[in-house]
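Notebook entry, structure prediction.
Reason for the run: the old model in the group folder had no record of what sequence produced it. Starting over properly, with the input documented here first.
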Amino acid sequence: MIPTKTKIGPEDAGRRMTLEEFAQADGQSGHVYELAGGEVVVVEIPGLPHGLVVDALQRQVQAYRVAHPGLVYYVASGSDCALRLPAMQSERHPDLSLYLTPPPDPIDPWDAWVPDIAIEVVSAGQERRDYEEKRREYLAAGVREYWIVDPAARSVLVLDRRGDEWAERRLGAADRYRTGRLPGFELDVAALFAALG
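New structure, fully documented this time:
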């Protein structure tokens, strides 16, 4: 007999679940669901400004992939991947995840495959999640770089792993960013926010 999957919806915000239960649950459409410290987090689907910035990021990354084939194994957005943290009882879905190597388990990679670069675009009212909670969790998970793209501030905070802590670099709208993890890549910060006017 096939077990019935747990259904979760907006009314489940704050509900306690284990990571195993959450990983098997089905979320009601129209929302994004994550698990943070064993509690279900329900977020409205981000609006168009958020999507335009994610799209601008994807265009820059995909242009890089075309010019430098074979250096990026997989680019995932939102629900196309999961970053599971069993000790923290959390599961996150970065806005954009860059994996430079193949997964250790191609059938169910999300328990062991960690993105080399995780990118979050800050939505109004979600600043604490992106700047504080995910900052701690992504460091604990082994993410090598975490980019926090903030449309309201027109800035990008790059967190680069240095052992067990982050080294910070804040980029303004006029800046460009190069990372040794993507040889030849240059993030054009102004282009991320151009569609926002």
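Summary: The helical segments are 19-24, 48-67, 127-141, 189-193.
The old model has been moved to the deprecated folder.
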